[in-house]
Design a protein that fits this description.
Layout: H1 3-23, E1 34-35, E2 39-42, H2 45-56, H3 61-75, E3 85-91, E4 97-102, H4 124-128, H5 139-150, H6 155-168, E5 170-171, H7 174-182, H8 184-190, E6 207-208, H9 211-223, H10 226-229, H11 231-243, H12 250-255, E7 259-261, E8 264-268, E9 271-275, H13 282-293, H14 298-301, H15 306-326, H16 337-341, H17 343-349, E10 377-383, E11 389-395, E12 453-457, E13 460-465, H18 473-485, H19 491-496, E14 500-501, E15 509-512, H20 518-526, E16 531-534, E17 541-545, E18 551-555, E19 562-565
Parallel strand pairs: 15-16
Antiparallel strand pairs: 1-18, 2-10, 2-19, 3-4, 3-11, 4-7, 5-6, 8-9, 9-12, 10-11, 12-13, 13-17, 14-15, 17-18
Helix pairs in contact: 2-3, 3-5, 3-6, 6-9, 13-15, 13-18
Length: 566
């Protein structure tokens, strides 16, 4: 064959190859899970689609995040919300970092012992269900502040998709239909005279229309912050509180402000972790966990080997004891942030670690028992074409929050007051124990395990990650990061991987079915570890920037989670 024919064939092959790559949104790679123009990963496909459409319109990652937050309030009402709160971690394409705390706050009329009976015993249902369980919502103010600082499109543009979804309705997934049916009795009990979410029986593809919520979102679109914290919606919230002996007042609403806080940062090998400071306990705990395991050869031991699991469990045991003792709202309690994350402290924490036997949790110093924290949170990760990245975890606390829906406004209120130490030393709904640092006080933000995080490698964006899961959030994020950086899993495989969890008390290793092989489990049990099988752990939604510069998503198959990109 002549050199001219060879040259011609090479040219034709190159053109065909590049054309095929461009049609999948990539250059030179055939893996259709990697894209370069941006990505949205969230708990619901419609919310992911809303975020992607905002990116395609020229919006940036924050525009998309605001749109997704409001869309989730419509299509994922068990955790997406405007009646709750959350945390945002932001990293610009140029490396600027910031975090926004829009966590709920205790109403001014709340008190330290408000959920105790005359003998000082915790009345747990009072902090879990009904009007008295709700803190002052922060989501709307948080989204307003985020958009004001970083948004590119107009406020109306990012709000309109959620209004359309609420007004026109959307088709329920099978999972959502089952959840609405299972909560019907609670909706009826805590919402007398209302018919929100009630039907004889929901089935997949039934249309859920939320007209009152559409009106509320329209008021927020037209009036910004004042559309929620003042005027008609504020009046409806206060009237709802009065109907059920709740505490949120007009002044509580008017006074609420989300807060820009300095990000928590730390290093694990060549990676830099950017995450939330208190009142999220997740950021400090995540960096502590990574520091505790960093000196050990995890990569050589392998994914979920007995040595890997034992080390990670012992690290988790110690970090959760510290969480219970030292973490709370920094506006009310001096958190020893730097001391907890110091390398010298990490080394001292592992001095009593014994490879031959489990460390009994009652011998771990400093801890006090923490309240149980709801697992019905939601997380979304977003990156835009320029490389701006957003990691947001947001929640009502329990599934469908307090079960109370604001009459005339159509949205659910949170039950975040249960995330305080209702009685310091008494577990909350998720078994976590808290001390005085997280005791109830008017205007105080309750401690959270939410751990939205962004990782850098060599000064460049590497990963956006987070998850719901209550007390399992921290360990799920911890394991997902290690799955990628130590065990060489791609993003989806890292998210899919079976997880385990230890939180100091109760002294058990909780595992998803199939997490440990039988030999590994026997080895750990012989050393004194109590292993308890449970349901799903976490629902991680994450994005990885590959070494080739493209985005690879991981949407958790444990839910209806969806990744969308272009």
């Amino acid at each position: 064959m002549s050199k001219y024919k060879v040259s011609f064939l090479v040219s034709i092959t190159t053109v065909v190859f590049l054309f095929g790559a461009c049609t999948t949104g990539q250059l030179g790679r055939k893996n259709s899970t990697e894209y370069y123009n941006g990505m949205v990963v969230s708990a619901h496909p419609l919310a992911s689609k809303v975020g992607l459409n905002i990116l395609k319109k020229g919006g940036n990652a924050v525009d998309a995040a605001v749109a997704v937050q409001f869309a989730l309030a419509v299509v994922y009402p068990n955790a997406g919300n405007i009646g709750g709160g959350g945390f945002m971690v932001y990293r610009s394409a140029s490396g600027e970092i910031s975090t926004l705390d829009y966590r709920e706050k205790a109403p001014a009329a709340s008190s330290r012992d408000m959920y105790l009976d005359s003998e000082g015993n915790a009345i747990t249902d009072k902090s879990l269900y009904g009007h008295l369980a709700s803190g002052v919502p922060g989501s709307v103010d948080g989204m307003v502040k985020a958009h004001q600082k970083y948004g590119k499109l107009s406020w109306a543009e990012v709000l309109q998709p959620s209004i359309d979804l609420a007004a026109n309705g959307f088709a329920l997934t099978e999972r959502q239909a089952n959840e609405l049916n299972s909560n019907a009795a609670a909706f009826a009990k805590f919402n007398p005279g209302k018919d929100y979410f009630l039907k004889s029986k929901w089935i997949a593809d039934d249309k859920l229309v939320q007209s009152d919520l559409a009106k509320t979102l329209t008021l927020i679109r037209d009036n910004g912050r004042e559309g929620f914290y003042a005027g008609e919606v504020a009046d409806l919230i206060v009237a709802e509180m009065a109907s059920g002996s709740g505490l949120i007042s007009k002044k509580d609403l008017a006074d609420y402000q989300s807060v820009w806080r300095e990000a928590i940062t730390g290093n694990y090998k060549e990676y830099r972790i950017i995450t939330m400071p208190p009142p999220s306990s997740g950021g400090i705990a995540l960096i502590q966990l990574l520091k505790l395991v960093e000196p050990y050869p995890l990569k050589r031991w392998g994914f979920n080997s007995d040595s890997t699991v034992q080390l990670m469990v012992e690290a988790e045991r110690r970090v959760y004891a510290d969480r219970a003792a030292y973490l709370g709202d920094p506006d009310f309690f001096k958190v020893p942030q730097q001391a907890l994350m110091a390398s010298s402290y990490s080394l001292s924490r592992m001095k009593d670690f014994n490879w031959n036997q489990a460390t009994p949790s009652n011998l771990i110093k400093e801890g006090v028992i923490a309240p149980k924290e709801s697992e019905e949170t939601t997380h979304f990760s977003i990156v835009d074409r320029e490389g701006n990245a957003v990691s947001i975890t947001t929640t009502l606390n329990g599934s469908y929050g307090s079960k109370v829906i604001v009459k005339g406004a159509g949205f659910l209120l949170n039950n975040e007051m249960d995330d305080f130490s209702v009685k310091p030393g008494t577990p909350n709904m998720y078994g976590l124990v808290g001390g005085e640092a997280n005791a109830i006080s008017p205007g105080k933000r309750m401690l959270s395990s939410m751990t939205p995080a962004i990782l850098e490698k060599d000064g460049k964006l590497f990963m956006i990650v987070g998850t719901p899961g209550g007390s399992t959030i921290i360990t799920s994020v911890f394991q997902t990061i290690l799955n990628v950086v130590e065990f060489d899993k791609n993003m989806q495989a890292a998210v899919n991987a079976k997880k385990f969890h230890h939180q100091w008390l109760p002294d058990e290793v909780f595992v998803e079915k199939g997490t440990l092989d039988s030999l590994t489990q026997i080895k750990l049990q012989k050393k004194g570890y109590k292993i308890t099988e449970r349901g799903d752990i976490g629902r991680v939604d994450a994005i990885l920037k590959t070494k080739w510069g493209y985005y690879e998503g991981g949407a958790d198959p444990r839910g209806d989670d969806s990744k969308m990109a272009w």
